[in-house]
Amino acid sequence: MTNAPTPEAMAATHAAAFAPSRPWRAEEFSDLLATPGCFATGDAACFALVRAIAGEAELLTIATHPEHRRQGRARACMGAWLAEAMSRGASRAFLEVAADNPAARALYRAMGFAETGRRPGYYPRPGRPAVDAVIMSCALPQGQRTET
Predict the structure, then answer these.
(1) Residue of 45, 46, 27, 21 lying closest to 98 (CA atoms)
(2) For the chain, what are the domain ranges?
(3) Cis amide bond preceding 20, omega within 30
(4) Which string of b and e fits 93-107 if b means at least 16 CB within 10 Å?
(5) Where are the alpha helices (DSSP H) in 45-129?
C-alpha cells in the first residue's frame, strides 16, 4: 500500500464504496491533496485521505472498493495513514463515521479509536431520517516523528 492513488482513481473508488450517496469528485480530491498537510495512503482499491496539521490528524475519508472488501485492506490503510501522521508530528487522530456503519466503527475501535462525541442528524439518508455522525479519536504514540 505505498502507491497513493490518483484523484481520478480515488473518485471512482469513493463512488463505488458510498453509492448511492453523492461521491466526491476527482477535482475535490485534487484540491484537498493540494492543501497543506493533506496526504493519501493506499491504492486504487482502498485509500485514506488525511489532513495532519498542528499535532492532529483527521481522517477525511477512507474507501474500499466493494470488490476488494474483507481482505484486510482498510486495516492496512488505517495503519499506513496513522504511521504517516505520526511521522508528520501528530499526537492525536480523529475521524467521524455514520452511526449506522457498524463495520467501520468496529475497525476504528480495533485500531484504538474511542467515541468522543456525536453530531446529531449529520448524514442525510434518502427517504429515511438523517443519521448521527459518531466522532472518534485516539492518542498516537510519541517519539515516532521523522524529519522529511
Answers:
(1) 21
(2) 7-139
(3) yes
(4) bbbbbbbeeeebbeb
(5) 73-87, 102-110
Amino acid identity, position 50: V
- Residue 145 DSSP symbol: -
CA R_g for the chain: 15
- Residue 121 and residue 129: Cα distance in Å, rounded? 8
Which one-letter amino acid corresponds to residue 106? A
What is the tens place of the pLDDT at every residue in 34-51? 999 999 999 989 999 999
Q: Would you state the pLDDT for residue 71?
A: 85
Which residues face 115 on adjacent strands? 136
pLDDT of residue 22: 77
Q: Among the CATH numbers 2.160.10.10, 3.40.630.30, 3.30.70.360, 3.60.15.10, which is that of 7-139? A: 3.40.630.30
pLDDT in tens, 58-102: 999 999 998 898 888 999 999 999 999 999 999 999 999 999 999
Check if the beta carbon of residue 129 is closer than 8 Å to that of residue 121. Answer: yes
Task: Measure CA 107 to chain center.
Answer: 12
